Amino acid sequence: MKALLKNVRISPKKLSVIAKLVRGKPVDKALLMLEYAPKKGAKFLHKVIKSAAANAENNQKLEAKNLKVAELVVNKGFILKRGMPGTRGRWKRIWKRASNIWVTLTPQA
User: Fold this and answer.
1) Which domain, by its residues, includes 32?
2) Which branch of life, at top level (predicted)?
């Protein structure tokens, strides 16, 4: 039971902080934690874990309450290169990073 979410406009560094909280947890507990987490990236992780649970129910006929987050990987996505005026007429480069999220769910033992 896998799901992925590509090109999420939040940096992988910020997203991986929240991913550490739910890695290895049961799906229902992970979704509850993410629902009330005060971080922007929590809604993206909530979305992809919910999608993976729906994939498990529809494709493999497994119940979401019996699953756990086995693997949660946050990788680099694309980078938008932008600029901002700096001192002495220079142009400062700004990188707006994106992330790719991979989730794998397994049945609890």
Assistant:
1) 2-107
2) Bacteria
**Using the 8-state DSSP alphabet, how is residue 88 labeled?**
G
* Mean pLDDT over each residue of the chain, to the nearest integer: 95
Residues sharing a CB contact under 8 Å with residue 42, sequence separation 6 or more, in sequence order? 18, 34, 35
* Whole-angstrom distance, CA of residue 99 vs CA of residue 76: 5
Q: How many domains does the chain have?
A: 1
Distance CA 45, CA 4 (A): 10
Claim: this prediction has a pTM higher than 0.85: yes
pLDDT at 45 > cutoff 80: yes
Mean pLDDT of all residues in 73-100: 96
For residue 51, what is the domain's CATH number? 3.90.470.10
